[in-house]
From TrEMBL:
Record's subcellular location: Cell membrane; Membrane
Predominant localisation class: membrane
Family note: Belongs to the 4-toluene sulfonate uptake permease (TSUP) (TC 2.A.102) family.
Membrane topology: Multi-pass membrane protein
Annotated GO CC locations: plasma membrane
Transmembrane segments: 72-92, 98-115, 136-155, 204-225, 264-282
Region (Disordered): 303-338
The species this protein was found in: Cellulomonas soli
Keywords: Cell membrane, Membrane, Transmembrane, Transmembrane helix
Protein name: Probable membrane transporter protein
Length: 338
């Protein structure tokens, strides 16, 4: 009973982080299962079976809060399902431990980029609204789905930073779309595991415990991601990626620093830098908000699609950037009362 309560709490916490940051449910849950002696294939199968329910709940919640771009969901989710099915089949036959450090190194680079980009420069807005191309989303989904199934998690850590780095979709919609498309990935991975392994090594009571915890957290996470400013969210996501993948590298055969003072020192230093980066982003965001005209509306997601894209009438001056609007307000024509 104690184990089941612990699993439910892990599912709740993992889904809260995953739904708010677009990653970590699979990584967190699979890590716990491996720590208590579950073999990798069974651990990944257990997590993905639970994720069928948690991702469905998360997707519905994100949709209700307006966090989902359905074109992105389809274009990245369908290839992701193909990759996940293939990955589940492969994992059932061999270990992919040797590939983990390589993937972690790539993800670490993306995490450092995001952490620096969002902390010091904020959200890239010059590409917002531009379409994400199929030739980018298709391969991304295929790779992320394969990594997710073989590693017990990875859909978010691969997909979220790649979409954020593109600068074409606002962070809350990146996270909502990745979380929603993960339903297809989880379904395909679970099917692959069940066809390859049967129910061998899978404890369905554990699946239910993880599922219940995740379903409870899904609506709260979807609400949270809508109200956290994009700049702060980007710094938070970048920090998660850097911390998680640095830990994987330190524990790999490359470095062999698992449970050593070096590991604690490095991860502690990263956590301090991460906290400082998020604090910096919060202060920068507040300064940006203070500089905006007091129009009595929530500007935390000022980079959302223009009114015309939603079928509404745009006010005069809509479509110009904040800096342009400020210049327009101070121009002789705009300020003239003659």
């Amino acid at each position: 009973m104690r184990t089941l309560v612990l699993l439910a709490l892990v599912g709740l916490g993992a889904q809260l982080v995953d739904g708010a940051l677009g990653m970590a449910y699979g990584v967190t849950s699979a890590t716990l299962l491996l720590a208590i002696g579950t073999n990798p294939a069974a651990a990944s199968a257990t997590v993905h079976l639970a994720e069928i329910g948690t991702t469905l709940a998360s997707g519905v919640s994100h949709w209700r809060f307006g966090n989902v771009d359905w074109k992105v969901v389809v274009r990245v989710g369908v290839p992701g399902a193909v990759g996940a099915f293939a990955g589940a089949t492969v994992l059932s036959r061999l270990s992919t431990d040797a590939a983990k450090p390589v993937m972690s190194l790539i993800l670490l680079g993306l995490g450092l980029y995001l952490l620096g980009r969002f902390t010091f420069r904020g959200l890239r807005t010059d590409r917002l609204g531009q379409p994400l191309r199929k030739r980018f989303l298709g391969p991304l989904g295929l790779v992320a789905g394969f990594v997710d199934a073989t590693g017990g998690g990875g859909w978010g850590p691969v997909g979220t930073p790649a979409l954020l780095a593109s600068g074409r979709l606002e962070p809350r919609k990146v996270i909502g779309s990745i979380d929603t498309s993960e339903f297809l990935v989880s379904l395909a991975a679970s099917l692959g595991f069940l066809l390859s392994l049967g129910s061998q090594g899978i404890d369905f009571v554990w699946v239910l415990a993880l599922l219940l915890g995740g379903v409870v957290a899904a609506p709260l996470a979807a609400w949270l991601v809508r109200h956290v400013p994009p700049r702060v969210l980007g710094s938070a996501v970048g920090g998660v990626i850097v911390l998680t993948n640095t830990r994987t590298l330190l524990r790999s055969d490359w470095l062999g620093q698992a449970d050593t003072p070096t590991e604690s020192l490095v991860l502690g230093a990263i956590a301090i830098v991460w906290a400082a980066a998020v604090t910096w982003s919060v202060r920068a965001y507040r300064a940006e908000q203070a500089a905006l005209p007091a129009v009595g509306v929530d500007r935390s997601h000022a980079d959302e699609a223009p009114a015309s894209a939603r079928g509404e009438a745009e006010p005069v001056g809509a479509g110009v950037g904040t800096a342009d609007a400020a210049v327009l307000d101070r121009s002789p024509v705009a300020g003239s009362h003659s």
